[in-house]
Predict the structure.
Amino acid sequence: MAKPFRVLTLNNIAAVGLKRFPADGYQVGSEVADPDAILVRSQDMHALKIASAVKAIGRAGAGTNNIPVARMSERGVPVFNAPGANANAVKELVIAGLLLAARNLVPAIRFVEGLRGDDKTIDKLVEDGKKHFAGHELPHRTLGILGLGKIGSLVADTAIRLGMNVLGYDPEITVDAAWSLPSQVRKAHSVDEVLKASDFVTLHVPLLPATRHLINTDRLKLMKAGAALLNFSRDGVVDSEAVVAALAAKRLRWYVCDFPAASLQGRTGVIALPHLGASTREAEDNCAVMVVDQVRDYLENGNVANAVNFPDVVMGRESPYRVGIANANVPNMLGQISTAMAAAGLNIHNMLNKSRGEMAYTLVDVDSPVPDGVIESLQSIQGVLVVRYLPVPTGVSA
């Protein structure tokens, strides 16, 4: 009987996802030693000693900045995430943020909380004070969206239904995202174009070196006076100090974000929420299910889908004998792999190879069992990071 896979959970992962690991083939828990895979939500793994046995890491969410992705790439370990699984939850919070800003709801709520007296006194205070909280409606206002992935697309669709004009920009938009984008979205040609034309700007980009402080002092100066900026992507995408200055100068009227910070506390015009973007039961369940399925498919079949550091390589089983190879993206790798297998008398039934940046990944199905010597030969090829033999267990159909 095959040895069960061992999966370490670093945070509470929704039970509906963990139940998708078969009990007879997996040992899952927060105390698992020498794990084959790690599941994580928000825990910072950068200082964590990651066991050499780890073959995959799954993030039950979209962002992976809490995971040492570069270090895992050097080891040939894919890091999976769950893009889009929490998209509806974030979209709803963005729309709530739009309404909070447009209708001045937060100061209005605070005003009411501070009222004292009998009903007659409160009625008079309300009538005298409500004029200070007059807002405006969303139809015909322009919403600028930076980042048109799943969340950006859902926000665009909802904003259009609310009567808003939507201007979007995403230089890295995928074909699938482009297809799902509402046709009414006007395409901008730059970040600056979006900032200049929008009454509200919402950010939906990952935190990368290229996007850190994407919104800074110079770009805030481009925005319409009295505009609102919404950040439900990542804290570092916005320069908080620059936002404070823009609020003080009345360039910005509102900064609505999901990332409290000392520099923002008590600032007029700041609405900061406590990381609520994916904090719904539905989102947590969706993320857990998605990432568990991906990690399981990789452990059992070598398939890769939604890894942030590997290409997508998914190949249906046509033989019970499969080898998965992660390697540096260098010339003649496929030739060396084929040569090693041919030298051992193995017939390649099917092969799929893809690359992504400096990483390449290959799945090979062969028609007969693969001897240990072949695995060792493949592992010795310069540039090969990981070789995994993935035969279907006896009695299980390929």
